Amino acid sequence: MKKWNDQFDLLVKSRTPLILIRSREEERVETLIREASKRLSPIRLATWDYVEGLKGILNSEGLGARQPMAVLQWLQKVDPSLPTILLAKDFHQFTEDAGIARMLRILSSEFRKTPHTIILCAFNWTPSNDLYDSLTILDLPLPQENELKVLLSNIANASNSNLSKNTLEELTHACSGLSEIRVRQVAAKALAQRGQLSKEDLSEVLEEKRQAVARSEVLEYFATEASPSDIGGLDALKLWLNQRHEAFTDEAREFGLPLPRGVLLIGPQGTGKSLTAKAIAHSWSMPLLRLDVGRLFAGLVGASEAKTRETIQYAESMAPCVLWIDEIDKGFGGDARSDGGTSQRVLANLLTWMAEKKSAVFVVATANGIERMPGELLRKGRFDEIFLLDLPSHQERFKILELHINQRRPNLNIPIETVVDRTEGFSGAELEQTVIEGMHHAFSEKRELQETDLILAATQLIPLSKTAKEQLDFLKDWASSGRARPASISIY
Ligand code: ATP
């Protein structure tokens, strides 16, 4: 927290009139500011809320209750020889009022000369454009390891729980990404059930995180059993992913390798992009979180950025995890003129996070094409690698058909060479469809599946590549200039 404290102190010392602390943790914000006011003495701290009015200033207790304007007028008149920080709780809710908004702007200019600071605290609030320019925004990160450790050991001491050093470490690690309030809630539950904090609380913490994701509007917790052995072909991609998995280990850190950032998978429909995202999470034993980009932009104007921050916090709280951004091209291909630049800003937030992130969140983004993809996403260095998933080759079709037949008729050994020849241009999903259709023929005639059933099914299916040939050629052309790596070549 030292870095945050330093930033905050600097803002106050440099006479920043209006600070918005972006956080859901109002109590923690108050504690931090209280500590800061001691460090910055003789600065005084006053708090205000709508019901109880002003607190913390002798002779003015209760002032401005139910009167937001009155508290601003009070601060305006406070003598400059008594520098004051005012933490105005829920105050963002009153800024819709034209009078309050105007007064805040007046004070933001006056307080450059007088040493008072107003602090607002909100997480899901987008200030109006006018106010935006007067505000300095400071994000409060979730509690860090050392804070969590202190919090947990305080709770343990207060409840006479005898936490071993190891259990404290494990609990601290598990709680990373949870807000102070959530940690207290988990602890309170544990204390109510067992009377003390213990190792058994680890699973509760994980459940709490899962529920936090479930409460999120845009993230979905995806249970999956898929593994790389369910993917036919894509050998270059599978080999690369294997290497990246190794890069999550402590040995890799000691060796000096950075944490893997993520991969962008581009390819036509049904070529196994989603399957790969699922297989990565399952085989790396990490939870898979699917981000619904459409929902990120749905709802209130201005809410998207808050939802993005929230998503990032949830993902980090689940780390190590895989964050799957499905159809990233559709989500961010928005027109800046039609959405007021929202998609641009959200994308910028996401890219900054990806570039700076220190947590083990592996991003798997999938896209069908590049036409609508913002250039920033395709630039080298954003992702660790960009892969093009082409339609499967002859050899890959063989493997995919074999896989899907084996999954459904495990002990069946039938020739498939002819159907492999006849399915040129089919995607993995279409090959799977061919197997299912073929099985329907066989089943309706009450006999075992034969290659002729598959051939018949294949002739009845018009692969998407026939209709979307131009789009695919364009994609391959783009990738061939070295901008994306083929997912299917095993030697590179
Ligand atoms: P979309 O762009 O439409 O989301 P996608 O590339 O994500 O498509 P998937 O959803 O992964 O495609 O594929 C659908 C199904 O097709 C998979 O669940 C799987 O059963 C089958 N499939 C696709 N590619 C392969 C493959 N290489 N090996 C085995 N099965 C495959």
General description of the model:
The chain is α/β, with parallel strands linked by helices and 492 residues long. The protein has 4 domains: 2-139, 3-Layer(aba) Sandwich (Rossmann fold), CATH 3.40.50.300; 145-215, no CATH class; 221-388, Rossmann fold; 394-461, Helicase, Ruva Protein, domain 3, CATH 1.10.8.60. 50% of the residues lie in helices and 12% in strands. The protein has 23 helices and 13 strands. The protein has a 7-stranded mixed β-sheet with strand order 7-9-10-11-8-12-13, sandwiched between helices. The chain has a 6-stranded mixed β-sheet with strand order 3-2-4-5-1-6, sandwiched between helices. Helix 6 runs parallel beside helix 8, helix 14 packs parallel to helix 16 and helix 18 (394-408) packs across helix 20 (428-444). It is elongated, with a radius of gyration of 28 Å. The model has no long low-confidence stretch (mean pLDDT 89). It binds adenosine-5'-triphosphate (ATP). Adenosine-5'-triphosphate is lined by residues 231-234, 267, 269-275, 366, 368, 400, 403, 428-429, 432.
CATH topology of the largest domain: Rossmann fold
Percentage of helical residues?
40-55%
Radius of gyration: 28 Å
C-alpha termini separation: 45 Å
Sheet with most strands: 7 strands, mixed
Mean pLDDT: 89
> How many structural domains are formed by the residues?
4
- What share of residues are in beta strands? 5-15%
Counted beta strands: 13
CATH architecture of the largest domain: 3-Layer(aba) Sandwich
Query: Major sheet: order of its strands?
Result: 7-9-10-11-8-12-13
* Unreliable sequence segments: none
- What's the level 1 CATH class of the largest domain? Alpha Beta
CATH superfamily of the largest domain: P-loop containing nucleotide triphosphate hydrolases
The secondary-structure class comes to: alpha/beta
Helical segment count: 23
